[in-house]
Amino acid sequence: MRSDAAAAAGYLNAGGGADSLGAAGRRADAVPAAGATPVAAAPVQGERADAASAQGERADAPGRPGGAPTRPAAGAAAPVARAPTPTPEPVVPATDFDALREQVLQCTACGLCQGRRHAVFGMGARPARWMVVGEAPGEQEDRQGLPFVGRSGQLLDAMLSAVGMSREKDVFIANVIKCRPPGNRNPKPEEIAACSPYLKRQIELIRPERILVLGRFAAQTLLGTDATIGSLRGRQHVWTMDDGHRIPVVVSYHPAYLLRSPVEKARAWQDLQLAMALA
Ligand code: SF4
């Protein structure tokens, strides 16, 4: 493994500066203390109200203005007549990982299914030592059906590499919300309530050694708090599974925020070191 100094240097230099955020740009981070409530029990957070400088988690350069429904890819023979009606029944996630993936891809449990190109189930190693949890797909994630792509994804990969890990071998990456909110708006409480059981089941099936939560929204939702990210990071939280198994949770900044505020990379590095040091 690389030395701490070398690893930190590589990661701290990764991703460029805030000036070139471009299509990146997740929502920022500033959050205070709290607990460790499982997703399903988390008090649903509503609209996020960060300062403008702390906004913009999801990138959206050439996105969909106004959150208009996504059009089929160029070259498609005809528009896909896809107008699924959200199902009112609560989601009961599958117990098998592949079945769970298929369930997410076909899910119509909330209105976000109507505008998505792809539901983004997640990707990464199985088994996985860590889970990385973000907020929701942005435009590129929606297009590709993969989490953390683009410059934010590159920075996340650099962060993981700095601690000797990769999404291919060690980490499974998922979001709290599986379908892109139109225009990258904040997920609504009912959307969070509908989708959170999928993440909960992913955690149960993967059973990672620890969870790294990136960004204010994901941290608040996962931990069931409205505390600022500033107060949540720098210490260990715990996710307690239904069977009593406890998983350490570390909160850090979202890579898109780090692209805009590279000075915070040093703190994010501290968060990674904390996650590595946890027993
Ligand atoms: S956001 Fe979640 S609950 Fe809503 S349709 Fe997509 S997968 Fe289903």
UniProtKB/TrEMBL annotation:
Its recorded reaction(s) are: Hydrolyzes single-stranded DNA or mismatched double-stranded DNA and polynucleotides, releasing free uracil
Q: Domain (Uracil-DNA glycosylase-like): give its ranges.
A: 121-273
Q: Which parts of this chain are annotated as the region Disordered?
A: 12-93
Gene Ontology biological process: DNA repair
- GO MF term set: 4 iron, 4 sulfur cluster binding; metal ion binding; uracil DNA N-glycosylase activity
Low complexity biased stretches? 20-44, 67-84
For this protein, what is the EC number? Answer: 3.2.2.27
- Say which enzyme class the record assigns: hydrolase
Establish whether keyword Lyase is in the entry: no
Report keywords, A-Z.
Answer: 4Fe-4S, DNA damage, DNA repair, Hydrolase, Iron, Iron-sulfur, Metal-binding
Determine if Lyase is one of this entry's keywords: no
Family per UniProt?
A: Belongs to the uracil-DNA glycosylase (UDG) superfamily. Type 4 (UDGa) family.
Name the record gives this protein: Type-4 uracil-DNA glycosylase
